[in-house]
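[step 3/7] fold_predict: job queued, chain A
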Amino acid sequence: MDSITVVSLLDVIGELFSDEISIAVSNTTEYIYYRPSKRIDLKIRPGDRVREGTIAYKALATNQKVSEFINRDVFGVPYHGMAVPFLHEGKLQGTVTAIYPALSDGKSVVTIKTQDAWIPIPFSDVVYLEAKDKKTYVFSAEQSGTHKNSLQEFEYLLPKDYFIRCHRSFIVNVNHIKEIYPDTHSTFLLYMDNGDRVPVSQSYSSYFRKLLGF
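[step 4/7] structure written:
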């Protein structure tokens, strides 16, 4: 089976998994395939070495399935994952790794910085978040302010059952979407219940529609 066929097969297999899961395949020393998800991207590239501290490295070292949480020290973001080694004629050939977003760390509020103070806002009251001018802005019905976390970091912190990345610059709380309108081709415009409008970009539109079921 040539490499093009293998990559095509892995892409199809990846489609069987949730949009929440990234898939990585390595040989015994380096990654040969990587499929990021909308929820987590470790920025792995084919040819990158399997780094010490990753679950792929641990699976190769032990020749056993490994499932655990990896902190942000390795790839810059925390993640949960499972790596399974595979063999051919009894000889170790590599690993297949499924990578999941890290679960919430137990916090239930986002503490924003305003001009005069710091204000904690419950997750449920956050309407949306926007990355703009190298800052992250958090909006509720009553307050708005900035936070030191990036949108990517918020993707791992916020409850994924109602916070959705809809654009490279926006994350929305689906409980605060009032109406959804088509915009340009394969894009949407969200009318939020605080009166603001948030775009859904083409690259996120199919993922967004799938999660909201329309």
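[step 5/7] annotate
The mean pLDDT is 86.
The CA atoms of residues 12 and 170 lie 29 Å apart.
exit 0
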